[in-house]
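Hi R.,

Here's the chain you asked about this morning:
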Amino acid sequence: MIKDELTYNTIGCAMKVHSTLGPGFQELIYQKSLAIELGKAGISFEREQVHKIYYDGIEVGTRRADFVVENEIVVEIKAVVKLEDVHIAQAKNYVVAYDFPRGLLINFGAPSLQRNLLFNPKYQAENAKLQF
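And the predicted structure, written out as tokens:
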């Protein structure tokens, strides 16, 4: 198994933000702070990257990912007291719709940082080789 350093380091950046700010801020504050930490860690990313959504081969709209980290991980962030199933479903849909092997859902709004690692079934063999 190969340790997934990128996911590990991305979560580490989020933990630094949460330990510094704690819960209670708007999502945008955490988004900007996470961008600072990712930059300090030398992790390349894009914020608010637009992705087209298709239905039956026809473009039906666009969505914006909070972060795309090194063009490998889509990161969706929240600032809610508790993650709900709808948040997990949304983040998982982004991973599949954007065609990324994995994604992270990170919630800064709880007393402790919450994170969910999400996988695209299309990349099951690739993800099975990684240790998280």
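The longest strand covers residues 58-69.

Let me know if you need anything else.
M.
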